[in-house]
Amino acid sequence: MRYSDLLYIIPSVALIWYWLDGMPCKEMARRAGKIACNEAGVLFLDDSVAINKVRLRRNESGQISLYRLYHFEFTNNGEQRSHGEVHIMGKRVVETNMDAYRI
Question: What is the reported pTM?
Answer without folding.
Answer: 0.85
